[in-house]
Amino acid sequence: MKLSDLKTELRQAAEPDDAITLQRFFKTGKGEYGEGDIFLGVKIPPIRVLVKKYSELSIDDAVKLLQSKIHEERMLALLILVRKFKKAGDEERKIIYQLYLANTKKINNWDLVDLSAPNIVGEYLLGKKYAELIKRAKSDLLWDKRISMIATLTFIRKGIFEPSLVIAKILMNDEHDLIHKAVGWMLREIGKRDLEAEEEFLRIYYKQMPRTMLRYAIEKFQENKRQDYLKGRI
To answer: Using CA atoms, how far apart are residues 189 and 153, in angstroms rounded to an integer?
Structure first.
């Protein structure tokens, strides 16, 4: 399977009008979190078709593709690595995990993080120590911090909440909206499985949370309880 063929087919699926919309949606303007990112205008369904078709692309070629300036090429690379990771043995999983962490500067938008971090980082660390997530949560790189939080979704799905709550504390006072949303989202996911576990955390920290983080965390609460949190009456 040739990397050049994959790139050609990806461009054949592009819609220029969609590219303009996507560049606005993913904040690619000057000073925005996605500054300089380039979109072809390819939606997720055709990307997933290409992931399946080119699933035998080598890990080396997938990592080469991850260096691209084109958003959809980086997404393809990550989804191919996710697919490979699911089918890999322990040694190959370790290689993919290490390559992923070595390239987080290229996993540089929230959709890229959200589609890959739980399925590679979270899955690899499940049942292991999660010191790497704590390290990434303390990084200066926005995408490292989001990866550290979103990767814990894998733990949450297994009923393991400690990593998410530890990292939520670290990121509590982060300045970026994308981190506020990520922390709030993971707290909400905990609440879906164990509402008391979420509320035990919220009762301690909700008054110091950024508003967006709190709103995401309590989104599914009954309206009267939601208002109590928003108005500081808990």
So the answer is: 8
Predicted TM-score of the model (pTM) = 0.95
Which residue, among 3, 122, 123, 143, has the nearest Cα to 62 in the 3D structure? 3
Task: Return the DSSP state at 106.
Answer: G
Residue 133 DSSP code: H
Nearest to 194 by CA among 233, 159, 155: 159
Please state the rounded mean pLDDT for residues 157-168. 98
Structure-block tokens of residue 132: 């790497």
Phi/psi at 8 (nearest 5 deg)? -65, -45
Instruction: Name the residue with tokens 């890990």.
Output: 59
User: In 3D, which of 219, 214, 206, 213 has the Cα closest to residue 175?
Assistant: 213
Maximum distance among all Cα pairs of the chain, rounded to whole angstroms: 60
Tokens encoding 11: 């461009």
- For the chain, the straight-line distance linking the first and the last C-alpha, in angstroms and rounded, comes to 58
Give mean pLDDT, residues 121-134: 97
The amino acid sitting at 12 is Q
- Residue 159 three-state SS: coil
Give the separation between CA 133 and CA 122, rounded to whole angstroms.
9
Amino acid making up residue 131: A
Q: What is the pLDDT of residues 83-101, one digit of tens each?
A: 999 999 999 999 999 999 9
